[in-house]
Structure formats: C-alpha cells, structure tokens
Design a protein that fits this description.
With 118 residues, the protein is an all-alpha fold. Helices cover 76% and strands 0% of the residues. It has a single domain, classed as Ribosomal protein L20, C-terminal domain (c-terminal domain of poly(a) binding protein), CATH 1.10.1900.20. It contains five helices and no strands. The termini are far apart.
Amino acid sequence: MARVKSGTTTRRRHAKTLRLVKGYTGVNRISWRRANQALMKAMHYSYVHRRTKKRDFRQLWIARINAAARLNGMSYSRLISGLKKAGVEINRKMLAELAVRDAAAFTELVSVARSAQQ
C-alpha cells in the first residue's frame, strides 16, 4: 500500500484555525497549538453563553417589571398572577418595554391585574 502524506491537509487545517484566532493576543495567535486550545475554549464559551444570555435577559426583564409594579403598589408575582387570571397574554419582554417606555400603559395593565385578583 502506498504511503500517504498529509502535509497539505494539515497545513490547511492549521491555517483555518489561525484565521479564526485573528485578533487574539500573544502567542495565542501565532502558535498553532496554543491557538487551537484558545479557539476550543472560545467556542465552548460562546456555546454556553448563547444559553446564559437568555437567562440574563429574562432576569433583567423581571427586575424591571417588579420595579415598575412596586411603583404602582403591586408585587411582581401578584401582577403576573393577575394578568394570567385576566387572560392577558403578554410576555415579560414586552411588559418590561412598557414599564420603561410607556408608564401609562403599564399602569393600565396593573389595574387590569388588580381587578382580576379580586
């Protein structure tokens, strides 16, 4: 069986990795071995943080809704419960936007939730 040399394949793979780590600092962009390790770790972080970003935003929206609800004399949990009982289907992202940008509309939603609670 003939001997197979893999120089071009390896060089292309290394070049691809070194292109992806452009902008890294120090030896992480020069040495292929260190660049490969840095790239693997960066890819892992990007995978994980695509998921944690969703958690972080939901937490932010809840904090904003809670602050606005308390300004209107109601807690976050009672507001959400009241909106569900009233049949208002609005997600937390939109509620947070209303709380920040349109206080009057948010106050109306609080009154709807309050009336559904009683």
